[in-house]
C-alpha cells in the first residue's frame, strides 16, 4: 500500500479559452521544474512538446519524466486520471490540471474540497490578449470567457508581444472590470516563473527560510526576470522570532495589495503559542490552517509579486513583522 502524503497536495487549475497559451505554459513548467515534482493532468499528450530525453516511461495514459514530474491524460475521464495520480500521491509535490478551453475552472477546483488528499491552490486563467476583445463580441463564446475571468484567482494577460499598446491597455481594463480584486500579470509566451503561479513546493518549512540577517528581497531565478510590463517579479521573506498578535496579522494580511500574488508561511500567534498555523495567499484568497509542526516559535512568510509590490521596508514598517 502506498504511503500517504505527509500533507495534502496543492491543487491548481490552469484555465483559459482555446488558444490562450495553456499548453505552452505547461511545456515551460515541465521543462523548468527542478525542485517541485508536478503531476499534470492534460487533455491531449499530442499538444505537449516534451523532450524525449526526459521521458522515462510512456504507457499511453501517463508519461513519467526524469525530473520527477508526470503527465496523465484525462481523455478517458478526469476522475480516473485524478485517481491514478492520488494512488501515487507520495511521489509528487503538486497537482496541476489543464482545464478544457470552454470549461469553468472553478468547478474543477471544487474537486479539491472533496478530496482530503488535496488542498486548493487557486485557479489561474490565461487570456489571449490579441483575441480577447473579439471573443467578448462573439455571442457563442462570450459567456464562457466572462465566467473564466470572474472565477479566476490569478489572471495571466498572455501573448502581449502579439498586441499593440492600445489593445493591451484595453484588455487590462476589461479584465479589471470583470474581476477587479484579482491580481494580474502580463506575459508574452508562457515563460513565467513557476513559483509565481504555483507557489513553493509542498515541503515548505522554516529550516529553509533565511535567518533575520538574511531576510529581505530575493529575485526569482535571474533567467526568468523580465524587464517589460509587470513581468519583473520579486519575492520577500518576512520573519519574526516572537509570537504574533492575531488581530494585527489579520489586518496586515487583509491589506496586502493585489501586486502581492502569492504568500506562504508558518505563523505562531501569541494567544496560542504552542500551535502553528500554515498561512497561504493565492490572489485575493487566503487560508489559515492550524496544527502544523514547525521548528520552534518563529513566524516567517514568503511573499511573491510583481515589481509594483511594496518594498520590504513598507511591508515591515507596520504590522506583525515590524522591527520596532
From TrEMBL:
Residue ranges of every copy of the CobW C-terminal domain listed in the record: 233-316
GO molecular function: hydrolase activity; nucleotide binding
Family, per entry: Belongs to the SIMIBI class G3E GTPase family. ZNG1 subfamily.
Pfam families: cobW (PF02492), CobW_C (PF07683)
Keyword Ribonucleoprotein listed: no
Keywords assigned: Chaperone, Hydrolase, Nucleotide-binding
InterPro entries reported in the protein's UniProt record: CobW-likC_sf (IPR036627), CobW-like_C (IPR011629), CobW/HypB/UreG_nucleotide-bd (IPR003495), P-loop_NTPase (IPR027417), Zinc-reg_GTPase_activator (IPR051316)
Reaction equation(s) it catalyzes: GTP + H2O = GDP + phosphate + H(+)
This protein's GO CC annotations: cytoplasm
Descriptive protein name: CobW C-terminal domain-containing protein
